[in-house]
Write a structure and sequence with these properties.
This protein has one domain (about 1-195). Helix 3 (about 55-65) packs antiparallel against helix 8 (about 160-195) and helix 7 packs antiparallel against helix 8 (about 160-195). The protein is an all-alpha fold. The termini are far apart. The chain is built from nine helices and two strands.
Amino acid sequence: MKDEIEEVHTIVEDKEQNIIRISLEEATQYVDTKIEMTKRISRGVILCVYSVVPLLFLLAMAEGSWIDMTPSLAIATGLVLLLILVSFGVSYFIRSNQYEIDFTKFEEEEFELEYGVRGIYKKKAQTYRDTFNRKMSISLSMLIMSAIPLLLAALLGQSTMLLFLTIVVLLLVAGIGIYLMIPVVAENTAYNLIISEGEYSPKIRKKHNALRSLEVSIGHLLLLFI
């Protein structure tokens, strides 16, 4: 009986040793790094969204004879600008990868917070909730309303030039909405991960880990058959 108790005690100790303990400084660094990374990602996203704007704008101007440029030249110039903007956007995505290694122990491993850390971030999450809801509502409203000019132009049978311009407006407004949304979602997600709430609650996290393991197993089986 004594041997069994000692064995159980040893197993519990081994399990506790595998759990990482997170200090307030580490949690704060994680949140700050997550926000910084998503700011870079949002810049890359908006550059990719806006990359097609010069092409559409030049086509609209050429279609309406507002500039001395043939449609072929407008397309060629627009495509060059598109590739330049996309290349800048991709550079932001690549540079954001440097932060991935800092997130491993938070997002992939089990951890415990040191005393007092959960209370601090629980309060921060509650305080941030109003900001999150407000910015999300603004972002979603911009995404929905961005299509209104295009729909009106299409229904009223406007010229091709005006249709191109309304698509430009759609992309500009939608891009701003996405740019505002990404950092807000990231900060809210970081708080939920630290305090283990929402999609990062222990129960849901176990389901995600189980699904991830299943996906890996299926991937290995597929590789065997290929």
